[in-house]
Amino acid sequence: MMKIITRIVLSSLTAFLSLMLATNVSAQRVNKLIELFENGEPGFGVLSFDYSLNNARSLATSGLDFVFIDMEHAPFDVERLREFLLGMTNKRSILEKGNLQPDVVPLVRIPAAGGAEELISQAKQVLDVGVFGIFFPAVHTREQAELAVRATRYPQYNGASDFEPAGLRGRNPSNAAWYWGISDYHAKADVWPLDPEGELLAMMFIESAEGAENIDEIITVPGLGGIFIGPSDLSLSIGEKPGFDKPEGHPTYEQTLNILNHAKKNNLIAGIHNATPDYA
Fold first, then answer.
1. What are the residue ranges of helices labelled H in 156-250?
2. DSSP designation for 75
3. Dist. CA 3–CA 102, nearest whole Å
4. How far is Cα 12 from Cα 272, in angstroms, rounded to an integer?
5. Which DSSP category does 197 fall into?
6. I need a surface site. Which of 14, 203, 210, 226 has the fewest CB within 10 A?
7. pLDDT in tens, 186-238
């Protein structure tokens, strides 16, 4: 009799915990970075070339908001990326918080630059293992930005108010759904803020004089999650010595300020790679 009662109590407790976790998951965003942006807060992260499990574990408990995994200047190795993401899974934090939102959001920069043909397949592969957004390098024109957004989206249902830009991502979400830990991945795997419920970020690197010149057109692309300034390549493209944290009066500084002002005027998320916290 005691065994039966104990089994009933344990079953009831398990059901309660499962219900509590499911409730928190449905009420909370999976992408912490988007949650910060919606609350008007900045996000701070780090660029990483190190795919090791030890680095993944360290970053998962670093207190940062995101990690920007660079597959443009490091090997484009999706299997190593998958292992890295698993290494960032912090089960203790999930249990303590009672929700599936990663403390540190993994994002990837793919190698395909400037709207290259392989952009669509590369975006699909990194999204399918579960990253929460993509940094697209060397976006120079509105057309290239639109292609990047389309590569991040699934095709939308007929009659959807946000049907355009039409998605190009092929559907095989099993790995990503498992990594996110949710049952409605397809519904959530869309670009924010075009889809207010979307959990993916499509971020465009502006790192050339051409991109800076076309910034007004680029930032009007629906589905754009934000822009990110690459100061080193931007410096080179306008004939300056490459580097970060250019002081006031330098052409790169003026171009950077111009890009940031355009983003601010259009209420668009903007970021930059800095060498020091003070410059940020």
1. 174-180, 185-188, 209-213, 215-218, 231-237
2. -
3. 38
4. 50
5. T
6. 14
7. 999 999 999 999 999 999 999 999 999 999 999 999 999 999 999 899 999 98
Q: Which residues contact 88 (CB under 8 A, 6 or more apart)?
A: 56, 57, 59, 60, 67, 102, 104, 106
Task: Give the mean pLDDT of 146-163.
Answer: 95
Question: At CA 267, angle to CA 278 and CA 188, rounded to 5?
Answer: 100
Largest distance between two CA atoms of the chain:
83
Rounded Cα gap, residues 37 and 42, in angstroms:
7
The SS3 call for residue 49 is coil
What angle do the packed helices 142-152 and 119-128 form, to 10 degrees?
30
Q: Minimal CA–CA distance to 106: which of 201, 206, 197?
A: 201
The angle subtended at Cα 93 by Cα 88 and Cα 97, nearest 5°, is 135
The residues annotated as belonging to the active site are: 73
Query: What is the pTM (predicted TM-score) of this model?
Result: 0.88
